[in-house]
Specification:
375 residues; alpha/beta; Rossmann fold; 3-stranded mixed sheet; globular; binds 1,4-dihydronicotinamide adenine dinucleotide; binds 2-amino-3-ketobutyric acid
């Protein structure tokens, strides 16, 4: 009975707590070992809570780190916090340059004990959760997408709440759907996505915010646009065409686009995306009026992108062979993203517009292919 009474007191405190005042619940979790996932009886929950303030630098774990974004983020964070303070993890075997560039560890986000062991043994304080199946691959394997994007997220939330971690989970333009306002799309509006990817990301936004209010979890989330990078391949999304065009333009002079020429989507160069991630993770709590923000840089159609590339490579030939699944997804997504809250609250500002993006991508891929030809 006393335990039940204590629990109902905790629940009452939770409902009465101010949206940002998470202290009472955090204390309750520690005092009576009531956590989102029950802490083993007899264990001392406070033992796990290594707060960021105890160390000079955060100790960061990146899940799903071998995808398009993780390696670049590790590089940026290692520059800032030191090589050994940032651990990349994935279920795939890392290429040797990645393996030798800093700590890498196997981590399957569906294995809760494995996650807990990594967090405890390495005294992790920040968790960047990148593991996911993206929009197009998600539609071709819904069961796996549901497991990785939803069950996996539950593991991540519980680990982060139990161990007092600051947690970053990216969301996406894909978290909106055909009934959302598309031009522009604000932070708060109807979200009824039609992909398992989008559904799982809305779920992540809501669960993260719920854990923030309920358990005091320091949850931070950015909705990324389509991300464009030169030295890492996209993992099966709808916006992948905007990366592939550069590789094909340089290598073959021909590009077959799987979206219609007038399909407008928000996009961002990877350096802006990774910097935004670091900036929101470092933003003082008081500056965050929300926990999930849109971020934006530019918006273009395949035709506009092709024209910009043709300014540098006039012989590029672009044809269109529409992928019905990707086209339907793209037509349900925002055309322009309103990121004014991120700009006002924590000073978000993008560096790359379309001309700089194209120049940078062609310089990078061009010099890469010249090196390859010389070898
Ligand atoms: N790349 C983009 O344009 C955008 C990405 N995002 C989000 O950013 C995050 C990172 O995206 P990308 O790097 O592009 O994704 P990606 O698809 O390139 O990489 C995802 C990684 O997750 C790993 N993974 C899959 N199952 C796993 C499991 N059970 N345990 C651990 N790892 C597992 C994969 O091996 C892969 O390396 C994702 O959450 C994605 O939704 C959001 C919007 C745009
Ligand atoms: C915008 C995204 O989330 C991703 N690149 C995808 O196209 O699925």
């Amino acid at each position: 009975m006393p335990v039940i009474r204590a629990l109902s007191k905790v629940a009452k405190q939770a409902l009465l707590a101010p949206a940002c005042g998470c202290q009472p619940l955090t204390v309750a979790i520690r005092n009576i070992s009531f956590s989102p996932r029950q802490v083993t009886p007899g264990s001392d929950a406070s033992f796990h809570s290594v707060s960021f303030s105890e160390t000079d630098h955060p100790k960061v774990l990146i899940t799903g780190g071998l995808g398009q974004l993780g390696v670049g983020l590790a590089k940026l964070l290692r520059k800032r916090f030191g090589k050994n303070n940032v651990i990349l993890s994935d279920i795939r075997k890392p290429p040797s340059n990645v393996f030798h560039s800093g700590p890498f560890i196997y981590s399957d986000i569906l294995d809760y004990k494995n996650l807990r062991e990594i967090v405890v043994n390495n005294r992790i304080t920040w968790l960047v959760h990148y593991s996911a199946l993206l929009s197009a691959v998600g539609e071709s394997n819904v069961a796996l997408a549901r497991a990785v994007n939803i069950t996996g997220l539950h593991n991540i939330l519980d680990i982060a709440a139990e161990h007092g971690l600051r947690l970053f989970v990216p969301s996406t333009i894909g978290a909106f759907g055909p009934t959302s306002p598309r031009n522009p799309t604000p932070d708060l509006c109807v979200q009824r996505p039609r992909t398992i990817y989008g559904v799982s990301k809305v779920h992540a936004e809501l669960m993260g915010e719920y854990y923030h209010h309920r358990y005091g979890l320091d949850f931070r989330c950015l909705r990324y646009p389509g991300i464009i990078s030169a030295d890492s391949q996209p993992g099966g999304g709808t916006t992948d065409y905007a990366v592939q065009i550069f590789h094909d333009a340089v290598k073959t002079g021909k590009f077959e686009c799987n979206l219609k020429p007038d399909t407008r989507l928000p996009m961002m160069y990877i350096d802006d995306c990774l910097r935004a991630t670091l900036e929101v993770m470092e933003a003082p709590t008081e500056s965050l009026s929300m926990r999930t923000y849109n971020i934006n840089a530019m918006s273009f159609t395949p035709e506009e992108l092709a024209k910009e590339v043709q300014k540098q490579l006039p012989d590029l030939q672009v044809t269109y062979e529409i992928d019905a699944v990707r086209q339907a997804i793209a037509e349900s997504w925002p055309m322009n993203f309103d990121d004014s809250n991120a700009r006002n609250d924590w000073g978000w500002k993008h560096d790359y517009d379309l001309p700089e993006l194209v120049q940078t991508m062609l310089n990078f891929i061009g010099s890469d292919s010249r090196i390859a030809q010389a070898n």
